[in-house]
Design a protein that fits this description.
By secondary structure, the protein is mainly alpha-helical. The chain has a single domain, classed as ABC transporter involved in vitamin B12 uptake, BtuC. Helix content is 72%, strand content 4%. The strands form two sheets. It has a two-stranded antiparallel ribbon. Strands 2-3 form a two-stranded antiparallel ribbon. It is globular and about 65 Å long. The termini are far apart. The relative contact order is 0.20.
Length: 305
């Protein structure tokens, strides 16, 4: 039972990171109907931005408090990652918005390759590591000689994910920007006729998704302590799977899907073969698309006539 509870904690932590990335997928798909396959590599770039910022803040600026340093790093990562995503939307996606449906998909894959290769060339192919951060733990149980622990960084990840989900849900549900996003989701042409700046709304949506990816990237760096230019693909695909599982277009669904994918991956690694944990997670995508294409919290598509 102790192993179960420890894996439950680990799964919720990992799923929270997937959920933050998945929100970016679900927001972009909800507003323009396109799967932004470069979003996983935007997340990867944010991990390197956080790594470089952490080195500058702690070494060059000499910030002693790790919490203050992480706050500064988080802000820097969000700013630069949002700027990169805004540029990608303006350069690679906006000119193709009125083109045939496959054009933005091909452009997204191309941007993913560009980002991955740029980081590989500029930072090198080897893993980049940092010193352990926030490794202190609470011992919740020690029965049977096995300790169930909860670390500070796991608490940080779950709390940040819950807070950001609440904030972004409020923005989408209660603010003028959220109303503009929902209007563009329903009908971009009609929204434009009613005075909504569609281009600006879509750009802001990309920026919001990138900011969440930057938060996920910073937390990923803190949690694992090592990053690589390959880290955009697998977490990105798993986050996309989480968005589909939860119901793409639903913010709570994205986080719920992320939690489920994280739990499936962790429990499979603990009780079955760790080599097939990715297979187990990706198999969920096929099962959901066959039996529940709208996802757990998603709404079925309604054909407009």
């Amino acid at each position: 039972m102790e192993v179960f509870f420890q894996q439950l904690i680990n799964g919720v932590t990992l799923g929270s990171i997937y959920g933050l990335i998945a929100i970016g997928y679900t927001m972009v798909f909800g507003i323009i109907g396109m799967v932004n396959f470069s979003h996983g590599d935007v997340f990867m770039v944010s991990t390197f931005i956080a790594l470089i910022a952490l080195m500058i803040v702690t070494t060059w600026l000499g910030v002693g408090s790790i919490l203050i340093a992480l706050m500064i790093v988080l802000i820097i990562a969000m700013i630069f990652t949002s700027l990169i995503s805004w540029t990608i939307e303006r350069v690679a996606y906006r000119p193709l918005r009125g083109s045939f449906r496959l054009a933005p998909l091909i452009s997204a894959i191309g941007m993913s390759i560009v980002l991955s290769n740029f980081v590989q060339v500029s930072q090198g192919p080897r893993n980049k590591a940092i010193d352990p951060i926030l490794n202190n733990v609470f011992v919740l149980s020690a029965a049977g000689g096995y300790q169930v622990t909860l670390s500070y960084k796991q608490i940080l990840i779950v709390v940040v994910t819950a807070a950001l989900l609440a904030i972004f849900w409020w923005v989408v549900a209660k603010t003028p920007l959220g109303r503009a996003q929902r209007a563009c989701e329903q009908d971009r042409k009609m929204a434009a006729l009613l005075g909504v700046d569609v281009d600006r709304t879509i750009s802001i949506t990309f920026v919001m998704g990138a900011a969440l990816a930057a938060v996920a990237g910073t937390l990923y760096l803190v949690y694992y302590g090592v990053v690589n230019f390959h880290d955009g693909f697998t977490p990105g695909v798993k986050a996309f799977t989480a968005a589909v599982l939860g119901g793409i277009g639903s913010l709570p669904g994205a986080v719920l899907g992320g939690l489920l994918i994280g739990l499936i991956e962790v429990f499979w690694s603990a009780y079955f073969s760790v080599e097939y944990k990715d297979v187990a997670a990706f198999s969920i995508l096929a099962i959901v698309l066959i039996f529940m294409p709208q996802g757990i919290l998603g709404r079925p598509d309604v054909e407009k006539v």
